[in-house]
Task: structure prediction
Amino acid sequence: MLNKILLRKIKFPLSLRGAKQACPCESRGSNLKGFSLIELMVAVAILSIAIFGIFQAYSVGFMGMADARDRTVATNYAQEAMENIKNMDFEEISSTVLTQIGVTKFWRGVQVDPNVEGSSNLKKVTVNVFWKNRNGKDLNIETSMLVNKIEFTAGAASRILLYVYPYNVILPVNDSAELTAVVKDAKGNTITNWDKAITFTITTGTDLGYLETAGQTVVTKSPNKGYATVNFYSTAAGLHADEKGQVIIKAEVLAVNELGFDTTEIILTWGAVKIALTAAQTSIKTNGNTTITASLQDAGGNAVTNAEAEITFTITGEGTLTAPLTKLTVGGQISIALSASNTPGVATVKASASNLFSDSVDIYVTGPPKSISVEVNPNSIYLNETAEVTVTLKDINGVTASAEELVTIVLSLTGDSIGQGNFNPALILIDIGSSSGNSTFTPTASGHATVQASDSAVKLTAGVFGINIVESLIANHIEVSANPSSIKVLGDLPENNTSTITAVIKSSDGITVVKYNQPITFSTNKGSFSPDFNSVKTLTLVSSAYQNGVAVVHLYSKNETTSGNATITVTSDSITPGSVEVGFYVEADHIDLTSNHSINIFGKEPDTCNILATIKDNAGNTVENYVGTVTFSIFQGSAYGQFVTSGSTIVTVINGQAAIDLRSKCSTGTVVVKATSTLGNGEIISVPNLSIIINEGGTRNLGYVTGSVNLSSNKKDVSFKILTSGGNLRIYNMKTTCGTTSAKLTVIKIDEVIVYSGSANNGEIININPTLLSIGEHKIDFTYSAGVSKENFNILFNADPDCGFLNLINFST
Result:
């Protein structure tokens, strides 16, 4: 059956039916012929080229997608940094070195210009992200933005912020960093009326430096407009070149635990911390060339030649840099060539490296001169003075440009000039390759004048500049000053036995006569104008020995043996002479205590006085060069007064003096103040001690007038009016109670001025900004976090924070 089926399926051509079978080779030669070897090789080659093209297209596509992915990731990293910066407090925004982002191939750095256009409330932030592609080529993206400091009325204090200026990396020895702590509300606004002391503490690295004064690791400062500042000084002399020291400093308000604290880190190192960029020429012509050099520097700005860094250069603007853009420093520096474009403008070159602060430099690309700039210095002169006129060629962008041919500048005064004068020379020739020239203007008539500079070929835009000419000054008198005003007799050091005497020639209205040219004579009755001979009591200076109406000589006490006062008199021509006294002291002998007035109790004006301690010798002369501190103490009467300080009563002596304020307390009496000082092994004390009388200061009636709760929808605002009828009164703190114990007192205003901003509990003692209430009516406003009612609302005022509440007002609505 199978054979039958097969026979039916097979059909032969008609030519074969019943014919003789053909030869097999004849069959292959005609219909079944194959490809030759050459044909096969050509076919394979064509196929290979086609397949290679396909794979190459795939490869290029994949590389393009990889590069696009890297650029997207880099952009996201840059955007991430920008968003973080936007959420920062304005004071926290600062430059950061180029550092690797995690374990990725991307590196990111932030450059901050903290003073854009001269404004301290505006910062320019630039973020750079660098990476290498699969071929090892350096790529980067850069993005920038301006951050403006916007100040709002602050809410309740929420946290404390500590930051370092300008950098947190300093040298291990004889270097410093400024730390600033500021109190913020929840939205980041500064509490400008914050008055509670801020404490700075070195928590790590106490052996590497100190705060403010040698040995200090804890400093308490009173804030000014919400800010408190302290300096850290490094003393890590034993730190090796390859070591880094770490100092951690904490800032906190000990009186308010809810604020928490903030810390910052300071690194001490001798190594390279930043890049400094310099240019061989900061101004080049279009299509010109210059060299940019990147040098490694330590925290003090000193060159570091024993370190290596891989510097990456980038450029924006009118120019290109020679490849490669990433170079390894040799001897702490490396250079790269810049080629300017054919368009005038600015080329900005930036250099960055891992763990180093970056730097940038601007190269001005100048075109041919298009205009003339003219300046007159000074722009206001007297008839007997002269001014310098400077003309400068500028290109189309206002950048200084070099002359491409000889330029003749003609100087003249415009026709509307009232002031008159002459130029010497009146024609300024600027040679090829030069860009500026100078002339001297001599006035002949007073009044406003306009100087015009134009080129003789009339190819450039002319420049103009105004100058004001006033009548000549006439010398009238001599002002004399001495620094320091007291010096030590027999002093072996120049800074101890020398006083600088300065004489200034003044007109009748107190203006310095800078063109004065007459001899000036100094005379003294004690000391000498010579460091070697005590007999030089008179010294005359001719005009060539002093400048601009100011004459300076030195008075020496080296050869004097007794204390006393030297009177230095200065004379010249027929003008009124001047004089000054210089005290000659032997050794510090005692402290002289003085006060400006007595004081009153209960904050009655005046309720404070200033106590001045002056270091004196045995003849009563001030010892201005005294180095040390004065410790103030209350010898008697501590119940009547106390010092106004943030904790310490030790005050540094400046120019022989130290001062402290004393405040009255709760009752009348006498406060006796004592002062001591230790220098070397000796101690000096106040002779005699100072007595301050605490007076009653008049009656202290504080009459209640009206009180009402503002029944707004939230019932949070309470307003009272009070009347002081017995005299002025200074309020230091308050305490309020109300029926709603959960309500927080957030703001207190007295006469529309905020004296407290915070979050006080019901019945808590509230320290306000000390506020003087004069006789008359005053309005006090309270704002709460929740609604309060009139019932059981009480308020107590206190005119002294140390006396307890005096119950000057105690009422209920």
Observations:
- Confidence is low (pLDDT under 50) at residues 1-30, 805-813.
